[in-house]
Amino acid sequence: MTAPTVLPHVDAVQLALEAIPGLTVYLGGTPTSAGWTPPDKFCVLYPEPGEAVRESLADQRSDFMTTFQVTCVGGSVERALWVADKVRQALFGPLSVAGRATWRPEDLGGPPVQRDDDTNPPSWFVPVQYRLMSIPA
């Protein structure tokens, strides 16, 4: 038995988000290059390393649990909420991770939509967190 790895889980989440028509997905942050102009609506996936969890008292740590945040951004409150709705739809069913059986991502919610005046023009964003668990298939 090998330890579970985080990257296939991150890849599964990113693929589900990238399947949303009309939505740009960034991993770990937005581009920082000069002249970059943010799209009117996009999301940023912020994964964490997760943890190998005991599947039994025998201390076999082959189960996996991780949380991740998807920050939903738009040029208006409505666009940020559109992104949040699309993200929720994309993550509603189980994800496909090779060699693993996954639970449906658990929607943990987030704070109210906030305005970001550090962007020009201003944008609105809402971070939504999810928990993902898997076991060996």
General description of the model:
- This protein has 137 residues and is α+β, with helices and mostly antiparallel strands.
- The protein has one domain (7-136): Phage tail protein-like (STM4215-like), CATH 3.30.2000.10.
- It is 19% helix and 36% strand.
- It is built from two helices and eight strands.
- Strands 1, 2, 3, 4, 5, 6, 7 and 8 form an eight-stranded mixed beta sheet that branches.
- A hairpin with a 6-residue loop joins strand 7 (114-116) and strand 8.
- The longest helix is centred in the middle third of the chain and has 14 residues, at 77-90.
- The protein starts with 6 loop residues before the first helix and ends with a strand.
Write a brief caption for the model:
The chain is an alpha+beta fold and 137 residues long. It is built from two helices and eight strands, in the order αββββαββββ. β7 and β8 form a beta hairpin.
The whole-angstrom Rg is 16 Å
CATH architecture: 2-Layer Sandwich
**Terminal Cα span:** 12 Å
Instruction: State the assembly state of the protein chains.
Output: single chain
Instruction: Note the overall shape.
Output: elongated
Throw out a few tags for this protein:
2 helices; alpha+beta; STM4215-like; elongated; 137 residues; eight-stranded mixed sheet
